[in-house]
Amino acid sequence: MTARTSERSRSRPDAAESAPDDQDCPWLDPGVDGAGLRVADFPSLLVLRLAAKIQRTLMPQYTHRFGLSLPEWRILPLLNRASPIQLSELTARSTLDKALISRAVRLLEEKGYVAVNGDPGHGRRLVVSITPVGRALHDRVLPTARRRQMALLAILDTGEREALYRLIGKLADAIDDGALVDDTPAPPP
After folding, report:
1. Per residue in 109-119, is it b (16+ CB within 10 Å) or e — as a string?
2. How far is CA 137 from CA 10, 114, 133, in A?
3. Lowest CB count within 10 Å: 2, 44, 65, 183, which one?
4. Which residues contact 7 (CB under 8 A, 6 or more apart)?
């Protein structure tokens, strides 16, 4: 256990469950079926916990400052790159829940940051566009967001950054390619 991990563990009782121990990687020999792997050490759980911590601590430092919710901020950069876009495509690209996206788009529209119109080619589809005011807000928030993300990356050395980026891509590609599809029937109750 590193000094930093040890210090965290002493200062917070839940730290042992939330921060992986640098010295004892439970993923090295969990058994073929994963029987030696505690739920607290599931890679998916650890990634979700990290994402939640980032969202709770890092992102509000710039979203609240500019009067945006996290979903609103997630939408603005997407629209800045791909506006106009169908609402269904925006939802797919954002990886957020459809209802959350709809609510955030409605709020952004009320604030004048986006425009929502019917798709002339299809009566039921909605098309979302970033407005000039929305683009200006995006351009004001982005430097702050970049600085906060760089503060996160500064925790890692160059090799760790490269490895993390490569490994995230490798896992995402494998999932996209169906590597985790399990067609084994569930055992009977």
Report:
1. eeeebbeeeee
2. 42, 11, 6
3. 183
4. none
Q: What's the confidence (pLDDT) of residue 3? A: 42
pTM reported for the whole predicted model: 0.73
83-93 b/e (C-beta count within 10 Å ≥ 16 → b): bebbbeebbeb
> In the prediction, which pLDDT does 146 show?
93
More confident residue, 130 or 1: 130
Q: What span, in angstroms and rounded, lies between the C-alpha atoms of 169 and 165?
A: 6
Distance CA 44, CA 83 (A): 32
SS3 (DSSP) at 16: helix
Structure tokens at 168: 């995230």
% the chain with pLDDT above 90: 46
Closest CA to 111 of 130, 86, 90: 130
What residues pair up with 96 in beta bridges, in sequence order? none
pLDDT digits (tens, 9 = 90+) for 174-185: 988 888 777 677
E strand intervals along 21-86: 85-86
Q: Which two tokens stand for residue 153?
A: 């990356």
